[in-house]
Structure formats: structure tokens, C-alpha cells
Amino acid sequence: MVEPYTTVIGLEVHVQLLTRTKLFCGCPNKFGLPPNSATCPVCLGLPGSLPVMNRTAFDLALRAALALNCRIAPFTKWDRKNYYYPDLPKNYQISQYDLPFSADGWLEIDVASASPGGHAGGNPPKRVGIIRVHLEEDAGKNLHDESGRGGDTRVDLNRTGTPLLEIVSKPDMNSPEEAVAYLEEIRLMMRELGVSDCEMQEGSLRCDANVNVHVPQASGGREPPGSPGFAATPLVEIKNLNSFRAVGRAIRHEAERQYREFQKDPEGYRFGKRLKETRGWDDDRGVTVGQRHKEEAADYRYFPDPDLVPVVVSPEQLDAVRAGMGELPQQQRSRLVSQYGLGDYDARVLTAKGRRMVAYFEAVAAALGDARTAANRISDLVYPALADRGEEIDAFPVPADVFARFLRETASSGQDPRRKAFAYMLEHGSDVSAAKAAVGIRDASEFDEATLRAAVAAAVAANPRAVADFKKGKEQAKMAIVGAVMRANKGAPNDVVRRLVDEELAKV
């Protein structure tokens, strides 16, 4: 169903950087430490303390911004963003305002090919513009009593001062699916570049969604959002989004809520009587909840931080960062499609599992000489095994060269024997010969084709109903004959048996 409005979405993504220490002090940047144990006079903002920029954090930020195709400013500075919350002990946050270190970037997303039905030749990837990427320090964390009995709120300041990258997109997304695809691409990119671990449950990847809806007016057309023929609801910033699923649900709910409110008073929205708003997401109830009117830049009273020197970025520094980035996920997907002939879906799944999985695939494909078979068998054998074992590919007990040999020597065995042999290898070690012997897979050279042909003829004679169904056009009926031959000749090569069955049925 086509909605009677256009949803317009921009995301503010916060990525915590993988540094050993915080952004402006030497306190450890580590999740899970005892509350308030990783603090010092600098991150607590005590009088007389002076911040010093973490060079590694800035280098990681440069790496991320370059990967996001941003323009890097040769000169940038630090600003104080003034506001009071219990988890911000200085009463200001060190951030960047009018001179961020990078801006004007873009990221391509592809929603259609993220599913098995997606393929090349469909909708082209969508380019989402990025307004700016800037560095700032994080605030602490409020721990609320959720018992419902009105208990205290505690404050853990360990996170205060940790390096945070804020990625602000243009309002270029128009569906929850596009927003989730954008987030997934950022998470993959940041992980592959070593910028962040992007663990949402630990708070190292967080997202606020800015949402409003544009409603066609009397003309009834579908003009681009922002055209004179549209009325637009005020912008709502949604907070407390701690999973990709929550992002999708919250955006869909908020768009529907705004449209319902618009229908009650279209004229009020047309003439701008509503204010921008910040709302929180209640995941249990599946609704957004009003929190406050949204602040403007003037409310934060930005001014340059007098304790920090500006940062100058040289062309040589940018060249050094680019040299260490390696192949980005989008580049890798394109190469897997063009070099190995993979479909968009297979290429996307491989890159989503990281560079080490892509390297494993390429090693298997090279040793096997068949990239498509390598991708298919990795998908139906290796991926489930990794999930069951809770392992990454570099700890997998079946090396790429062994897996390639296994695929060669079980190519004719059929799906079920191959799965059993692979399970044996996972349990008892990567000995291909032992695994084949354990489940009765035999080499084609061990079977006399004349003997197999006689067995096929006997099976055809013993299954007249399957033969009759096959002659009526039921192609699948021949599998009863194939199965009978395979049961009588355990370990026989499946492809040879199928060929002989086809030849025998052609005579009937």
C-alpha cells in the first residue's frame, strides 16, 4: 500500500572510537569497568585541569570521514556546547560547531539487494548525503530505577570524555528500510576500518532519527517533498534507539503518528503553528513519547574552547590515512560481483561478515576453481556452523584449502551425505578422507558404471508409478528412482546416477 504522504528521514549516528584512552585525558576507554572508576580531574571538569587531544582518536576520525567521502577541512577547532544534565559534570561538552573537521560526504545504500531476491539490474544504489562528521566527547550515563517505586537515579561518569564521532546525514531517506540499511552500512564500514566495534548493546553505536512527513495538498500529486504543493509536519527527533529493529519500528510509528495528527488540523501544520519536538522511543509499548521542544543552536551558546589548540591537517597526513584504509565494503562488493560473477546478495552477505570471511571465500574459490560453488557451499555449510559454534572465521577448524578439497571430493555425493561428512569434520578434525569414510561417501572410481546402469534399469522397472508420473511431465518423480539406486549403492556418485536415470527414462 502506498502511504498518502512521504516520510523524510535524517539520521544522527554516534560512533564511539576504538581508542585505549579518552579524547582529552588518559583515563581508560573501556566498557564494563566499575561505576565511576575511570575518571580524572580532566574528564570531570575540575578547576585547573587542562585537556589534551588524543591523536589516535583524530586519526580514526579522519579514516572514517574519508571512507564516507567527506571533504576534510585543513583547519578545525574545538567548541564548548553548553547545557546541563546530571551526566555532564562540566556543564558543557567539548564538540565542534561551525568548523567541523569534515563535511559534504555521501554513502551508498542498496535496500533491494539486501535480500535473496535482490539482484543486479534492479533499482540502483541510493546515495545518502552526509552533512558533516565531527568529533566530540561523550557524556556519562544515568542509571534510572525502573522498579516503578520512585527510586533514585544514579550517575556513572566512566563514559564521560570518551571519543565520539557524530555522523549527520541529509534528510535523504524515505523509509524505515532505507534508514536501517544506512545504519548497517555504517556499522560494517566502521568495524572493517577498525574505527569502532559498533556494539549497540554497549552504547558504542547510537542513533537519533529526525523524522517528519510531507503531505500532498489540493493538487493531489506526488511532487518532491518540500515543493509548494506539500504541507510538512514539524521535525521530530527520536531518542533511545538501541537496536536496528527499534530504529525501523520507531520511524514507522512516528510517521504514522504525525500523519494522524496532521489530519486533525491540516491548516495548523500548513502555517507552521507546531514546534520541533524531541520524543523518546518506548520499545515495550512500541510508541514515541514526548520529552521536550527541540533546542536550536543558539540555546547551546557555542563558543571556541580556550583550552584546546586548533588542529591543522596536512595533505601528507591524509595520504597516510588513505594508504592504511584498505578495500572498503562497497568496493569489495563490486569486485566480488565483477571478478567472481557472484550475485549482489551473495557479495553483500560475504562482505557483511567481514574482510576475513571474504579472504576465506577467495582462498576456497582459488583452490576449487569454482567461485559460485565456493560461495554456495560456504553459505549452506560454513555460515550455519559458525553461528552454532559462536566462532569467527579465523578460529574455524576447517581451513580454506581443506574445505576446497572437501568440496571437490564430495561434489557427487549429494547434499545429505555431504552435510554429515562436514559435521564429522567439525567434531573430529579436518581429515577429509576420514569424514568420507565415516558416512560412506566413496569415490566415483570405486563404482563400475555398468553395474550402476543395471541398478538403474532395475529401479525403473520396480517403480512404474514414478515412471508414469515422469512421462506426464512431473520432473520431480524421477527422484524416487534416483533415491532407490542411491540406497542400494551407498556412496555412489549422485551426478552419475542422475545421468544414468535420465538416459534410462529416455528409453521408456
Features:
508 residues; alpha+beta; 10-stranded mixed sheet; 17 helices; 40% helix; elongated
Describe the 3D structure.
The radius of gyration is 30 Å and the shape is elongated. It is of the alpha+beta class and 508 residues long.
- Number of distinct helices: 17
What is the count of β-strands?
Answer: 17
**Strand percentage:** 15-25%
Number of domains: 3
Which structural category do the helix and sheet elements fall into? alpha+beta
The major beta sheet can be summarized as:
10 strands, mixed
Radius of gyration: 30 Å
Helix percentage: 25-40%
The N- to C-terminal Cα distance equals: 52 Å
Shape: elongated
Mean pLDDT across all residues, rounded? 87
Low-confidence parts: 114-121
Summarize the helices and strands and which ones pair or pack.
Elements lengths: L5 E11 L24 H4 L10 H13 L3 E2 L2 E2 L2 E4 L9 E4 L6 E8 L16 E12 L3 E4 L8 E4 L6 E7 L6 H17 L12 E12 L13 E3 L3 E6 L2 H21 L1 H5 L6 E6 L4 E7 L9 E2 L6 E2 L2 H9 L5 H12 L3 H9 L2 H14 L2 H19 L10 H10 L5 H14 L3 H8 L9 H14 L1 H8 L6 H11 L5 H14 L1
Parallel strand pairs: 13-14
Antiparallel strand pairs: 1-10, 1-11, 2-6, 3-17, 4-5, 4-16, 6-7, 7-10, 8-9, 11-12, 11-13, 14-15
Helix pairs in contact: 3-4, 7-8, 9-10, 9-11, 12-13, 14-16, 14-17, 15-16, 16-17
Q: Could you give a quick summary of the protein structure above?
A:
The protein has 508 residues and is of the alpha+beta class.
